[in-house]
Amino acid sequence: MTTSTLPRPAALRRFTAAATAAGDDGVRPARRCAIAGATFAALLCAALLLLDRIPSLGASTLDYLRFYVDGAGPLVTIGVYLVPLAGVAFLWFMFTLRQALGRSDDDTIVGGLQLATGIAFLCLLFAGAAALASAAFLQHRTGVFPLHMEAIRAHTSLGYTLVFLYGVRMAGAFMIATTTMATRRGLIPMWLSVAGYVAAVVLLIAASTNPAVLILMPAWTVAISLALWAGRRTAALTPSTTTDETN
What we know:
The protein is mostly helical. The chain has 10 helices and no strands. α6 (about 110-140) packs antiparallel against α7.
């Protein structure tokens, strides 16, 4: 009877493996979140730099004409292709982020807001980039020269409206919801919480069409994903450290 109550070596090994896996539950999603966040940031910044070659809203009709006479070139087309790849990376980031943050009954409304604004931002980014680069993409793929510069300017205006008037504000709301959830769980330092809220407010009230404004989003993405990874690693190591010191 006494012998049967002792843990067997195989059972002990299984228990140890299960405990280790449980400790890694928060670290692995956070690591995937950091990788996805960095990938999204790199792809979006590259796409914005390439799409910025298209004449802006303030450019003259002569600038538009010169741009298409010289040929839109392959770089804008590459930027168009990078946008959906950045979108895929953002979806990966968003869902690994939710997994890394964990579930809480107190964050039902904030979590729903985070999901809704993230998807809205992505849809507006896709639609805006398509409108902005449609004429350049058409010329590069077919060789057809767009004759109506005012129609192209209208497409550019639509793209800027979707991205900088609506999309940027959805990005700001996503940042507020995510920062709130991470702060409540104590997973990010206070300075990053304050910086996240400040950057989100800037996006919510920004009236600029400069692509540099949108860079706040990928920069924040990298910062919070790395902070979550570091926070989860620290939380996973703390129990084992305490146990070792007790023994």
